[in-house]
Write a structure and sequence with these properties.
Number of helices: 7
Shape: globular
Number of domains: 1
Order of helices and strands: HHEEEHEEEHHEEEHEH
Largest sheet: 8 strands, mixed
CATH architecture: 2-Layer Sandwich
CATH class: Alpha Beta
């Protein structure tokens, strides 16, 4: 025989359901952050020894490079990335010392949802940090085929790592590792170190010897 719930019990159930946390609309800033890494599977990271990191952060808004003065948050990210690589056994040097790896950091903001290959924005390095920066004038940047996703009205932090050690072999500066941080609170100073740590934790292969 079919039974019905008493009216009071039914009301209580509806009340509890209405108070439940929506997994999509009620995420905390920390819960909203996503960490994505990609790398060139042919790269042998243990064969690189030194790195140099560009001392400013590029800002790319709706596929346009913006004029941008370095901020204290930019400096925090630069230092956090440098510390993470040092902890992996790499040695930081100046770009004049022929580093094995070149590291660049960018803020990428867009107002629509897109799926793009990293090649699509790689050209910004030719305009902002051309190959002369790394003492390889006339070389082109090369990005393997992999893709990134960014959503409307969202700013992501991008970290790109380039193989400078082997650039002279093919006249290209090849991207060997990229990391992306998406979500809320990315540029809160208290979150910087933890975010960089979480991003690099996804890449245990990224270490010297």
């Amino acid at each position: 025989m079919k039974k019905s719930l008493p009216w009071g019990v039914l009301c209580l159930c509806l009340f509890i359901m209405s108070c439940r946390k929506d997994p999509l609309n009620n995420l905390t800033a920390e819960e909203s952050r996503i960490y994505i890494t990609n790398y060139d599977t042919s790269a042998r990271f243990q064969n690189y020894r030194t790195f140099s990191i560009i001392d400013s952060v590029a800002v790319i808004n709706n596929n346009q490079l913006q004029t941008h003065d370095r901020t204290s948050i930019d400096a925090q990210f630069i230092n956090a990335v440098a510390n993470a690589l040092t902890a992996r056994g790499y040695t930081r040097v100046s770009r004049a010392q022929a580093p094995d790896l070149g590291v660049a950091i960018s803020r990428v903001s867009n107002t629509s949802t897109n799926i793009v290959s990293y090649n699509d924005y790689g050209g910004y390095y030719d305009n902002y940090w051309d190959s002369y920066y790394w003492n390889y004038g006339g070389y082109d940047y090369y990005f393997p085929t992999y893709y990134g996703v960014y959503q409307s009205s969202e700013t992501a932090l991008m970290i790109d790592m380039f193989d400078l050690k082997n650039a002279s072999q093919n006249n290209q500066i090849r991207s060997v590792w990229s990391g992306m941080i998406r979500g809320s609170g990315i540029f809160n100073s208290s979150n910087v170190d933890n975010q960089v740590t979480a991003l690099f934790a996804q890449s245990p292969y990224l270490k010297y010897q």
